[in-house]
Amino acid sequence: MITFDHLRCKNLFIDFLVIPEGITSVIGKNGSGKTTLLKACTGIFLPEEGSIQVDSTLPRETETGWVNEFPDRNILFNRVPDEIAAALRFRQVPCDEIDVRVAALMESMGILHLKERLMRELSGGEKILVALAAALIHRPRVLVLDEYDSHLDAKKVGEIERIIRKSNVPYVIRCTQQMETAALGDFVIFLEEGRINYAGTPGSVFAQLKNTPFYPFSWRIQE
Predict the structure, then answer these.
(1) Tens digit of pLDDT per residue, the chain (223 long)?
(2) 59: number of Cβ within 10 Å
(3) Nearest CA-CA partner of 112 in 125, 136, 95, 129
(4) Which end of the chain is more exposed for a tag (fewer CB within 10 A), N or C?
């Protein structure tokens, strides 16, 4: 469990919250505290008051992976395999092991065809996939996705959903403005002005948001 206890961090105030294993979708208006919550979960932001723990461990002591909306801003290497391997190289993992792990991960994600490509040649969707691979290569316990789906079509979002499910990362926490994506999660958090209004299963949370813009369109047309 990821546990928040009397947390105060930037504009975020959480009296108590438990995030279970699985995929958690974080939704709310701009400025509601979504990105702050994500950064608190990874230890980028430290609590000003209270605490947050990942299975009784501090976030900064937990292996985490991060994918943001604009992967271009974080590209470190020219070649796709080198970009994916970055975290392993920084940990001085032996080159032979790196090659094996990168090839295995790319094959499992269905992106082995990108092996000889340069990062600048990739489409936006392909860059997201490479960023996701780079976040997964060191086998994180927490994977954070900050509006990664903003510029992706439904097919690409579905492809990434399949990869995330297959990865077996214990905690996936994603911030999204797409309610169709949010509804695919196991747990949903709805933030407003830095506080949690609703948290629970997609069915329970979206039932409270039925007459708002946050209700999934596909759910609406099925009723």
Answers:
(1) 999 999 999 889 999 999 999 999 999 998 899 999 999 999 999 999 999 999 999 999 999 999 988 877 778 888 999 999 999 988 899 989 999 999 999 998 989 999 989 998 898 888 889 999 999 999 999 999 998 888 788 888 888 888 888 888 999 999 999 999 999 999 999 999 999 999 999 999 999 998 888 988 777 776 6
(2) 21
(3) 129
(4) C
Q: In a 10 Å sphere around its CB, with 0-12 CB exposed, 13-18 middle and 19+ buried, how is residue 182 labelled?
A: buried
Task: Tell me which architecture the domain covering 1-63+142-223 has in CATH.
Answer: 3-Layer(aba) Sandwich (3.40)
Contacts by 55-64, CB closer than 8 A, 24 or more apart: 55/1, 55/2, 55/141, 59/142, 62/141, 62/142, 63/138, 63/139, 63/140, 63/141, 63/142, 64/140, 64/141, 64/142, 64/143, 64/144
Query: Letter for the amino acid at 182?
Result: A
Q: What residues contact 35, with CB distance under 8 A and at least 6 apart?
A: 146, 175
Domain boundaries, the chain: 1-63+142-223, 70-139
